[in-house]
Amino acid sequence: MKGESCMGNYLEDLAKKVDRSIIRNVSICVNYIGNQKFNIMKSLVPGKSLEDILYGITNEKVFNYEITSVSSSPTNVILGPGLLRRQEIVINLSINTNNGSTPNIYFEKELKLIEETEDLYWRRLRRKIGNDLLILPATAALIFKESKVLLAKGPNTEKWMIPGGLVELNEFLSQTVIREAKEETGLKIVPRKLLNVFTGEDFILTYPNGDKVQIVSFPFLCEVIDGELNPLDNEVETLQFFELDNIPKLKGDNWLKVLEMGAKELKNERIQ
């Protein structure tokens, strides 16, 4: 498949540049429950969304899919002539090509924060590969107060963002969203539900210094259990709650879809 060739080139090219450093990769493990049953593993491909890859696997339109779990484990994989040390984040999901409802998956267990290392994983990679495209997993914390959602704004910019950040090595996604929410908002939160997984061309960013990334975003609906609004790092200057019909300019229009999905889910919970 074209996607497989693209992914192979991406990982092989990256492996040549990072000199046996650990590469964080994101894959999906599909349990297909349509007209036939099988399990299949596919790596995310640069520029492709989750829906694109599911369609490539089934050759049918996927009406709904349920994210059953997200796991992370270190593995060693041989690719071509060199050894690629790869730590996988695996999105386990069930899909159905028959239109129907998707059950909710809740995350009720609070996990301990892990300490942030000074020399971050992605910075170590950047020193070796320069500005080349990296696929990087990240979490986003959707924090609502009644009908308003919390947004953050950094210094020297007029664009707002959902609090969140990149996953570090050996972190669970739940740990990442807890850590990032604490650092950027001062709030202690519990991630209650993983809403969906967002990636693809709309999530490719080029930073002012030329670094290119494709974000694989894991947005969580979160509950505040303690703390006051007070950003602890220099990436956030202002925090404010906004009504959904009065959202300011975001860092990307694609994030509005994430906010709307969170608000819809919150409304459904209140009805129930």
UniProtKB/TrEMBL annotation:
Residues of the Nudix hydrolase domain: 134-264
Keyword annotations: Hydrolase
Cofactor(s) required for function per UniProt: Mg(2+)
PANTHER family in UniProt: 8-OXO-DGTP DIPHOSPHATASE-RELATED, GDP-MANNOSE MANNOSYL HYDROLASE
Molecular function per GO: hydrolase activity
Domain of life from the UniProt record: Bacteria
Source organism of the structure: Metabacillus lacus
Official protein name in the record: NUDIX domain-containing protein
UniProt keyword Hydrolase, yes or no: yes
